[in-house]
Amino acid sequence: MDFFEVASSTPTMRRFLDRPIPDAELIKILETANMAPSGSNAQPWEFVVVRDAAARREIQRLYESVWGPYKDSAIIRGRTTLSPRAVKALKTGDEFAAQLAIVPVHVVVFLDRPKMRVERGSAADLFNFGATYGSVFPAIELMMLASRALGVGTAMTTMLTSKEAETKALLGVPEEYQLIALVPMGYPADAFKRPMRKPVFPRLHDERWTRAWPTPVAPPDK
Ligand SMILES: Cc1cc2nc3c(=O)[nH]c(=O)nc-3n(C[C@H](O)[C@H](O)[C@H](O)COP(=O)(O)O)c2cc1C
Q: Is the CB of 132 under 6 A from ligand 1?
């Protein structure tokens, strides 16, 4: 697939087929993720590939236990103003949480804290969070793009970080690693679509902040 087609058709996949991903494809995806840049080339990522059905169910249960209260609080917050779009998003979130039991692979991404040489929660950590988290998310994005190129759907999710202790206990992950994201991975039950994004032009500045990059004028329809 052409890179630009991959990059502009990698939406968050929320419905999956119950069909395994061959090992060779999985390795190709993870080796591509491993090409990501990181601060000082620390490469502080660790990927736990979960395919065991019982473990996947448990991850789904943990995710749902965070999603449920999150959804309830969203409903309470927006009681008088919940837009049709928000209602739809909450329904999609419900379906997605349920789908996490079906998706054949969960890649759970951890940050190797000692490699970053900043203590978690310290002032340096808060000051440096761009370098710390920014050293893992490019690998996640590459994982998603490589998956898309092979026809595999993914989602970047961070909700499970609220259940870090439980997830680490489930997967036997040592204390010094920090849970960063859960990336469910599977063949899609929905079409890959173009992500909905606002145009880039109002956010493009030409040399200086105050000089807007002119929005190109679309050619008139013939
Ligand atoms: C850092 C980050 C964390 C996210 N966490 C979650 C999550 O926990 N659950 C979820 O359903 N989606 C999560 N998403 C997906 C976003 O909701 C999604 O990317 C956004 O709505 C745009 O939709 P699209 O990717 O389909 O274009 C996350 C995305 C990012 C970048």
A: no
Find out whether the beta carbon of 12 lies less than 6 Å from any atom of ligand 1: yes
Report the alpha-carbon distance of residue 171 to residue 93 in Å, rounded: 25
Q: Which domains does the chain have, with CATH numbers?
A: 3-203 (3.40.109.10)
> What's the gap in Å between 12 CA and the centre of ligand 1?
7
Amino acid occupying residue 33: A
| Euclidean distance between CA atoms 69 and 97, whole angstroms | 13
Q: By the 8 A CB rule, do 25 and 139 touch?
A: no
Q: What is the DSSP letter of 137?
A: H
Angle at 213 between CA 211 and CA 215, to 5 degrees: 140
- Per-residue tokens: 90: 């909450």
Q: Which structure tokens are listed for 8?
A: 């502009």
Is 66's C-beta closer than 6 angstroms to any atom of ligand 1?
no
Q: How many residues does the chain have?
A: 222
Read off the DSSP letter of residue 16.
Answer: B
pTM of the predicted model as reported, rounded to 2 decimal places: 0.93
41, pLDDT greater than 90 = yes
pLDDT digits (tens, 9 = 90+) for 186-215: 999 999 999 999 999 999 999 999 999 988
Distance CA 124, CA 139 (A): 23
Ligand 1 near 162 CB (within 6 A) = no
